[in-house]
Write a structure and sequence with these properties.
By secondary structure, the protein is α/β, with parallel strands linked by helices. Helix content is about 40%, strand content about 20%. It folds into 4 domains: about 1-55, MutS, DNA mismatch repair protein, domain I, CATH 3.40.1170; about 70-225, Rossmann fold (3-Layer(aba) Sandwich); about 235-245 and about 310-439, Rossmann fold; about 250-305, no CATH class. The protein has helices at about 35-45, 70-80, 95-110, 120-130, 155-165, 185-190, 215, 250-270, 275-285, 290-305, 310-320, 335-345, 355-365, 400-410, 430-439; strands at about 1-5, 10-15, 20-25, 30-35, 50-55, 90, 110-115, 135-140, 145, 150-155, 170-175, 195-200, 220-225, 235-245, 325-330, 350, 370-375, 390-395, 420-425. The longest helix is centred in the middle third of the chain and has 21 residues, at about 250-270.
Length: about 450
């Protein structure tokens, strides 16, 4: 019996029926997805079935060792992973997940493929990986160079998994919650790499799709809370929620739009219990004008609550109070970024900001040329943001992940306590949104 790797699958040349495989009439072989490689090996070994293993064709590699020192909690996380060489480690933003990944590479000492969500993170990982004293590869849309340690994006890994799936022994998924999406799951399925490590600041997804990760990478095997690291490794911090009232004209417009949305739900006999129920309304809006109007009214109401004039007034007071601090202001909508930027002359960053301009803004923030920046969700993940000690959330989603990412932006040790403000509009759905992201 012989095992070979073919386009993201394990083909078994032989007559035995093997668990996890299906018969392929075209080739006359039993076949399984690449990630079943270890399961098949274990079955054959435990059943005393002799076999030839030609699955892995690893990239030639020198010794992959480094001399970094891990903090106690980082070493504890790595030790937990080493037990089975699979699983997800959950550490807060700023706690050094990259160092744990480098510790895993040092321990496995074999070709490693690292998958990240953005090109900015590709650059950050490659810079950190310089401690291995070898050339670090990149496999992205801008460069395709395979090396013993190679960094790729989820998009590029997805497009080339069938070809690359047997070239690396260790897979590292940074921000592993992305892997749970329907398309990206195929990356883990088509790679035969026996060692798998997932890294994230928040493991759970609101849509519960993170449950698929247990089979593809391994379940959550280690988690440490932010509060356990504050003081010694992360800044001490406090959180204050400030509630403001809508202006009379804003209140009237908000209530009118909420009424339109609620009336539609009642007429359509739809009860909102979660995101899936709202998706029903969105789907109907494609051919139902009343549903389209309801969705549009809901969005208008949310924008009124998230971008009220009272929030700008409160922001002005906080800017005066913290004029000697370094601030990051977070919003949900690009329009509000521009409002804040224009009114207070604060540089703004959105997903439309050119990469060179964004880099220039962040560099000037790092150098203290700018003492504050304002951004929509583009800074929540995947971008190296300079240290700040005050964060102001003007608006956001109900995502716990988003909240933790924003909190993490101000917790890097910088010589003092950090402060996170959250400004919410009273008497609106934003109160519930705020409660959800913290619970």
């Amino acid at each position: 019996m012989r095992l070979v790797f073919e386009q993201g699958t394990i083909a078994i040349r032989g007559d035995s029926t093997i668990p996890h495989t299906q018969w392929d009439d075209r080739t006359g072989t039993n076949r399984a997805l690449g990630f079943r490689y270890q399961d098949i090996q274990a079955y054959l070994t435990n059943s005393n079935i002799a076999y030839e293993d030609d699955v892995l064709n690893l990239i030639p590699s020198p010794e992959l060792t480094n001399d970094i020192s891990l903090r106690p909690y980082q070493q504890e996380a790595l030790d937990r992973w080493v037990t089975d060489c699979c699983g997800v480690l959950v550490l807060p933003t700023g706690a050094g997940k990259t160092y744990v990944g480098m510790g895993a590479i040092d321990w496995v000492n074999a070709p490693t493929f690292i998958i990240v969500p953005t090109l900015d993170l590709v650059d950050q990982w490659r810079e950190e990986l310089s401690c291995f004293d070898i050339e670090i590869g990149e496999y992205t849309g801008r460069e395709k160079q395979l090396k013993p340690i190679t960094v790729s994006t989820y998009d590029s890994a997805y497009n080339h998994a069938e070809r690359l799936g047997n070239r690396f022994k260790l897979l590292i998924f940074d921000e592993v919650h992305h892997l749970a999406s329907e398309g990206y799951r195929q990356i883990a399925e088509l790679f035969a790499s026996p060692y798998r490590l997932g890294l994230s600041a928040t493991f759970e997804r609101e849509d519960q799709k993170h449950e698929a990760l247990s089979e593809l990478v391994g379940g959550k095997i280690y988690e440490i809370e932010t509060d356990r690291l504050t003081g010694e490794y992360l800044s001490e911090y406090s959180v204050e929620r400030i509630t403001v009232d809508l202006k009379p004209d804003e209140r009237a417009a908000y209530e009118e739009n909420v009424k339109i949305f609620r009336n539609y739900l009642k007429s359509a006999d739809i009860t909102l219990r979660g995101p899936q129920d709202f998706r029903k309304v969105v789907l109907r809006s494609g051919n139902d004008p009343r549903a389209w109007r309801a969705v549009r009214s809901r969005n208008k109401a949310r924008k009124i609550a998230y971008g009220s004039a009272s929030k700008l007034e409160e922001l002005a007071a906080l800017l005066r109070q913290h004029q000697d601090d370094r601030l990051i202001i977070f919003t949900r909508y690009n329009d509000f970024v521009h409002d804040v930027s224009d009114r207070f002359l604060i540089p703004g960053i959105t997903h439309k900001t050119r990469k060179d301009e964004r880099r220039r803004i962040l560099e000037r923030f790092r150098e203290d040329t700018y003492s504050a920046i304002v951004s929509s969700q583009v800074l929540d993940e995947g971008i190296d943001v300079p240290d700040a000690n005050v964060g102001i959330i003007l608006s956001g989603t109900g995502s716990s992940r988003e909240y933790q990412q924003r909190l993490g932006r101000i917790l890097r040790p910088s010589g003092g306590a950090a402060r996170l403000y959250e400004i919410v509009s009273s008497g609106t759905g934003e109160i519930r949104t705020s409660a959800r992201r913290k619970g």
